[in-house]
Amino acid sequence: MFKLDLDQQRKSTRVENCMVHLDAVQNPMTCFHLSINWLNCTNHLVDEMVQGWARMADRCGMRLVEAPRAQDTALEDSHPFHSPIRINLERPPPPIEELFDDEWIHEFQFFGDPDSEPESSVDLDSDADSDNDEEQLSQDSSSEEPPKCEQLSRARRARTVRRMAKCVPAFAFERELLEEQNFILDVEAESNFPASSLLHREYTFERQGHQYTQYVHRSGTAFVQICGPGQFLWINNYLFTSHQSHMRPQAA
């Protein structure tokens, strides 16, 4: 966070300052956020600064998109003409566990799991009675339950699959679909971050938690939120398109 002078050419007769908040970390695969806060400033000075940033970003191969800070999930209750469009896939995506083949599971089995240790071999007592051995073998052959080693193998496989599923981001199919359609990650849902009891986070501004993971189109004209398995919310970015003259409908 830093203070920025809006009137560097001294066009105004009063002090024109604003507060700018930036992301502390920049990831090329996601959006970089700028938040501007001002009080009692001249509107056209703020607009000139934003337009200057947009031209500079365009020369650097980037795009500056104006967007509301709060996530628009309840617009259908307050703005009937700007309500989001719900989109559902015809077929829900399959569970992520079904994509793990045996080779992946075998390679991931002993990775980072202290409980996954090789099973210790069981030594048979050489002095055991042969009659007892034959009776035990006959009971094992007649039993319908799988051997203990097979049960342990199944339990280890299920535990490994659960660990592998935790390493995959939530709604992986929906994310891949949006990225294929030229969308880029804007903000993550609050539920995808560690709990505040596990990780202490501090912000220089009052951060509003986001209910859904949100993507923005590279043109800046629309947002898409992932609200469930195979469920999306399409929201037009009227704040950005209202300033773009080439996107407005032309009179006949």
From TrEMBL:
Q: Which InterPro entries match?
A: DEPDC5_CTD, IML1
Q: Which cellular components does GO assign to this protein?
A: GATOR1 complex
Q: What gene is it encoded by?
A: IML1_2
Q: Name one GO biological process term.
A: positive regulation of autophagy
User: Biased-composition ranges for Acidic residues?
Assistant: 114-137
DEPDC5 C-terminal domain location: 4-70
Q: Which domain of life is it from?
A: Eukaryota
Could you read off the lineage of the organism from its UniProt record?
Answer: Eukaryota, Fungi, Fungi incertae sedis, Zoopagomycota, Kickxellomycotina
One of the entry's Gene Ontology molecular-function terms is: GTPase activator activity
Which residues does the annotated region (Disordered) include? 113-154
> Protein name, please?
Vacuolar membrane-associated protein iml1
